[in-house]
Amino acid sequence: QLQLVESGGGLVQPGGSLRLSCAASGFTLDYYAIGWFRQAPGKEREGVSCITSGGSTNYADSVKGRFTISRDNAKNTVYLRMNSLKPEDTGVYYCAAHLGRFTNYCIVGSKSFDYWGKGTLVTVSS
């Protein structure tokens, strides 16, 4: 069964860093584009970043220069490195996978992502 499992969330002070992981089981991530999304309390889910099967990346303006997405196909895992965290980065972070559309580029927040993990909570607070 195809599964995505996020990990690495937690409580961090403003200005701190976290690295989230998105591990796949039941399928090989190699050919999938992966997106990271987040949902803050009381707000709609929004796209954060995405990476194509070939490694091309894209970011929401709110996280550009602070977050870095990467993939390790040997470990069947995608990462989101988050630096200079702000309280407004607080939320549940989800990863999602899509096969087929995003080869040379990906769209942050696209509704084409169709396999989802259950999320990991990130809280940025002093």
Features of the shown structure:
126 residues; mainly beta; seven-stranded mixed sheet; four-stranded antiparallel sheet
Short description:
The chain has 126 residues and is mostly beta strands.
Describe this structure in words.
Strands 2, 4, 5, 6, 9, 10 and 11 form a seven-stranded mixed sheet that branches. 0% of the residues lie in helices and 48% in strands. It contains no helices and eleven strands. The mean pLDDT is 96. 36% of the residues are buried. By secondary structure, it is an all-beta fold.
Question: How is the topology of this model organized?
Answer:
Blueprint: E1 3-7, E2 10-12, E3 18-25, E4 32-39, E5 46-51, E6 57-59, E7 67-72, E8 77-82, E9 91-99, E10 115-116, E11 120-124
Parallel strand pairs: 2-11
Antiparallel strand pairs: 1-3, 3-8, 4-5, 4-9, 5-6, 7-8, 9-10, 9-11
